Amino acid sequence: MLRQYELVERVKAYDPDADEALLNRAYVYTVQKHGTQKRASGDPYFSHPVEVAGLMTELQLDQDTIITALLHDTVEDTLATVAEVEKLFGPDVARLVDGVTKLSKIEAMTESERAAENLRKFLLAMSEDLRVLLVKLADRLHNMRTLHFIKSEEKRRRIARETMEIYAPLAERVGMYEYMREMQLLAFEQLEPEAYATITGRLAQIRSSEGGQVGAIALSIKQALAEAGFKVEVSGREKHPYSIWKKMAERHVSFEQITDIMAFRVIVDSVPDCYGALGVLHQTWQMIPGRFKDYISTPKSNGYRSLHTALIFENSMRMEVQIRTRDMHQTNEYGLAAHWSYKQGGVRPDGEVGWLRDLIEIVDASHDAEELLEHTRLAIYQDRIFAFTPKGALHQLPKGATPIDFAYAVHTDLGSMAVGAKINGRHVPLRTPLGNGDVVEIIKSKNSSPQLSWLSFVVTGKARAAIRRAVRAKEREEIAAIGRKLYEEIAGRLPTKVGKKALKEAVQRLGLEDEDDLMVAIGTAKIDDRSVMEALVPGSARSITDPEDWPKQERAISIRGLTPGMGFHLAECCHPVPGDRIVGLRRPGEGVEVHAIDCLKLADGIDADWLDLSWGERSTGAVGQVRCVLYNRPGTLAEMTGIFAHARANIVRLQMTSRDNLFGTYEVDIEVTDLAHLTRIVSALRASEAVSTADRL
């Protein structure tokens, strides 16, 4: 553990103007406040904040950050308060300490809810000052270094899993690769102990059997570059054990099949030297096609810049080589922390960096704990691709991203209005995965809105959160619309006319926020008709005890203008279409399910509220289902689909359910306008020589 004078000397070594008295006061304060508290290792608790402060000095961070590191646990774990910290150390330190302080554990919350709530507060604090993140990452790194002292295996695995899923990716996103690699290694040891032991053992074997091979290769690289006139530093190492394991899992290969276990780093004086050195290496050794990446011309979103290539050395040995300048190396290893150095003269990087703005937007859009964790993990996904707008603006996205992800990355409004896309000038489906260097043009319409089906292929947290928020808003709007129609029908059964005043009082009696909440509650059957009538006209329902005397629905509820899947759901068992006589089943929290009147499944709805429904005038559009038995000879399937095309009915699904020597049976889902349209199609099928029988399902 760092002693008091050692910590102060470290800070003064890079920042002579630091307030020595304030640093001493912070050190003494944390020792006094934590007192006799012990860590799981048996060490005094104050050794933890002191070591975290030591990590901050290695990054040469400013005085306020060092003091924050010393005090970051005092408010949570001792009797200290934020107000006391502000009085002793100033408002900036108090704000940072408050941002880093973990939430008190709420036992009523599930593990995911606690993690999500901690993450939510953390991200919001981080958006105001990124030093909160830097201290938190150092705090987590030191906790991971001492994780093995915790006796409970379940707790160790929980902390390791959270580190792997949240903190290591966050360290990567701000460019702190040293922190990321160590966190991953320590978490990997806890989560996959057998794999960890196997891979580290194999690396040790390679190291002992091959002796100084890494050093010999590094020397060969340095000599080749020196002969070409370049002054360089070359270092080599085996690849990170977690990186090797991840590659083995992704490629489904064994350790022996991983051919580029060795990695080398070349440090040069300037950017032109980076490209010059690359040319020398490619001329000296054969490069491996498809493995070259230029992060100098197109840096990663966290500011990472370097040239990456892979070469075949002697004896067919593959190796990875990274080429960068010294400034790039400093930024690459410590990312945003390098910009917070005291040398910056008070100039601080903007905390509202692009990816962080996306995370804050996700916090606002996420509906619950599970969604927040899912969206955040997607947003800090590591493997990236680069795509361009038609005007040349560069956007970085996860691998597998689609035009919808790209549209939301450009702007949330663009994503919401997307109706089509062009990739490199060609029209493509919206679910098409993007490739590196693609130029993406989004076709938009002001009348468009996000589709629920997009959730099946988008991969970014920002897109998924925005789509879910828009779909939920649309769903609530339509449920409220059907609830309003039900309300009007319920109010019509009362003995007196109901006005705005009575409605407002009914909302208060039912303990709801506003009129919209009442309509949603009616639409989702959270409030029954009797309760609504009693709230509108107290006493109107209380006297009726016999269910047979209860006022029945007098007129059908129109579902015209509502969207299937939002305000109501069309039952898949009978596939009703406009023109069918329909009824609705309403169950609490599930909305209205629409069935054809002759559907056999209606017998299962005895526990639901039955509603008399109508399609309303000019309602069009639904999916009908047809079963066709075709003669088993060439061309019959083409003739059947030709009938659908002639009738302008789009095929949604076509499935062969059985086939023998004479016949093939097909089930087909087709988009039709109404019952008459479907009836004409069935009649045309029956008249065809290719069709044995055709029936609506």
From TrEMBL:
Gene3D superfamilies: 3.10.20.30, 3.30.70.260, Beta Polymerase, domain 2 (3.30.460.10), Hypothetical protein af1432 (1.10.3210.10). The keyword Cytoplasm does not apply. One of its GO terms (biological process) is nucleobase-containing small molecule interconversion. Residues 625-697 form the ACT domain. It catalyses: GTP + ATP = guanosine 3'-diphosphate 5'-triphosphate + AMP. SMART domains: HDc (SM00471), RelA_SpoT (SM00954). It is an enzyme of class 2 (transferase). GO terms for molecular function: GTP diphosphokinase activity; guanosine-3',5'-bis(diphosphate) 3'-diphosphatase activity. It comes from the Bacteria. Signal peptide: none annotated. Keywords: Hydrolase. GO terms for cellular component: plasma membrane. Coiled coil: none annotated. Residues 45-144 form the HD domain. Belongs to the relA/spoT family. In eubacteria ppGpp (guanosine 3'-diphosphate 5'-diphosphate) is a mediator of the stringent response that coordinates a variety of cellular activities in response to changes in nutritional abundance. This is GTP pyrophosphokinase rsh. It comes from Novosphingobium aerophilum. The lineage of its organism: Bacteria, Pseudomonadati, Pseudomonadota, Alphaproteobacteria, Sphingomonadales.
